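so i finally got all the pieces together for this one. its two components total, 636 residues if u count the protein bits. some of the lines might not be protein, just check the labels. i wanna see the whole assembly predicted at once instead of chain by chain like last time, that was a mess tbh
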Amino acid sequence: MDLAFFGVQLLNGLQYGLLLFLIASGLTLIFGIMGIINLAHGAMYMIGAYLVYDLNLRLGNFWLAIVVAVPIAVALGLIIERLFLDTLYKRDHLYQVLLTFGLILVINEVQRIIWGGDVHSVAVPSPFDTSLQLTSNLQYSVYRLFLMGVCLALAAVIYWVIRHTRLGIIIRAGAVDRDMVEGLGINVRTLFTLIFSAGVALTAFAGMIAAPLSTIAPGMGDSILITCFVVVVIGGIGSIKGAFWGAILIGMAETFGSVLIPSLASMVIYLIMAAVLLVKPRGLFA
Amino acid sequence: MLHRYPRRVAIIMLALTLCVAVFPLWGPAVFGDQVDFIQEKLTLMVILALFTMSLDLLVGIVGLVSLGHALFFGVGAYTLALASPEYSAASLWWMLPLVIAVAAITAFVVGLLVIRTKGIFFIMSTLAFGQMFFYLISTSQFAGGTDGLFIMFRPSVTFGETTLLDLSNSQTFFYFCLGLLIVGYLFMRWLTRSYFGQVLDGIHDNEHRMQALGYATSGYKLVAFVIAGVLAAIAGMLAAMQYGFANPVQLGWHTSGEVLMMLILGGMGTIFGPILGAFAYEILLYVYEHLTVHWPILMGLTIIASVLVLPRGIAGLIIAPPWNRKKTPVAKEQAAESVIPPNSIQRNEG
């Protein structure tokens, strides 16, 4: 493996890790603050990808498709939170698992009804549909670089909101002691709706911007959900910082795993998780 | 939790068992040509009932919500498939102990890791370990990858030269599974009422208090995890015999989710509820599949509805029917539960 090839893999791992962070951050926020385990999170990633595929065909413009798709995703999050989750906050995790599992069945089947069981793809949009010439025979897609930039910018925004705004203070306090926050006169109900919609929007947005790089297929949300669970377990629940470093670690591990030890590639991330559980059962950043 | 159930529970369960047991007598009259198919379905329901019951030990009795229980189901199926000779039948006398041993070792190792986690972490790590085995099996050469493995012959049950049970006969196999389910049920009843079961119940209610009383709760939870794993593996072995193959789907997380659905549908923590849940789920599935190709929507909505309206499942309806709910002890228990601050469980985690 020469240096340029290594560099490309490093960039790929970083890009995949940053994408995972967008999804995992929503998951970890919803866990940490609302105490809700949302299995339908991966399904929303899939919905994001399909929305942008569909709207891209209709509107003929990828960027316009994203602009239209994001509000739809937020609305979906609002509806799910108000309709189904409202009753679940005071119940055991078991019921949350089951209800959101039921939601997966429904969402996956609705996807099949609307878009069918075929595999689709989205063309890489201009002006990023070129590649950089690294060496004489190695290229790197500009869109991947752009995607990294978007993810990093969003990560910075999330960091800024949580560290430096009043909302961030409430979120951090809510993750530590929800009852106390409510006792101090914060409307937790509104906060929950906001967090859930934001989380769903983040994962759906991840699905949208990743659409040109991935195959859009039924069930694509399931595998990404479980990978994100691993990220959250490694990073520690409710910790955005943990989600970030966990995502980078898993992104790198999966990318390099599939290049260096293809036979064990699908196992690598779980072995890392097992190791973390042995040493720090609450995650690295809890 | 371990209070005695009203007499109607025993009556209903005995009546249903009898009804299922004499199926060969009334089946042909009702189902005509389809009787063989229905009997196969019934056998599958009996097997799934055993599987669901094993999960009840974790979820209902100890309060450990596992989303990776299919792992052990798959371990049973694949142990049978890998250990069976290709062109002859294995003997059940060593196959069953082998399945139990492999499942116990797997459950012990996985349990050691996941027992260290609590609440949401437990759910996620069991899910992740289940998927780890799923990928291990579905990308492996030795286990047939995504195609799985075929089992040509069901194990033989012989004593010396004489065949005691011919499991390849579908009716004998049906009774064999039913017998194992009944034995499993009696075992679970005995276990939950034993000293060990009382400690598990205590852990479910308040683990910190049990620790303060001097119980090494992790050890108890680990033993329960191993027992549940072994029972699930036996069910998995039976399922592989029934289908004639072992497939990665059997240990995927959708199977784990389905068995959890059967459990909630039947009513967790009751031991008899899971049996009803497995039957109810399979019957609903059969009906929905005949209604529409988009049956997952109906199934998903059913589960959402049962979580919202019927959290105690069918068993809850039998123990405390809606028309005389006020008189029964369960209703009081429900009332008492709602007084407990909702976040007390989460606070223990943090």
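The CA atoms of residues 47 and 239 of chain B lie 6 Å apart.
The longest helix of chain B spans residues 35-62.
anyway lmk what u think
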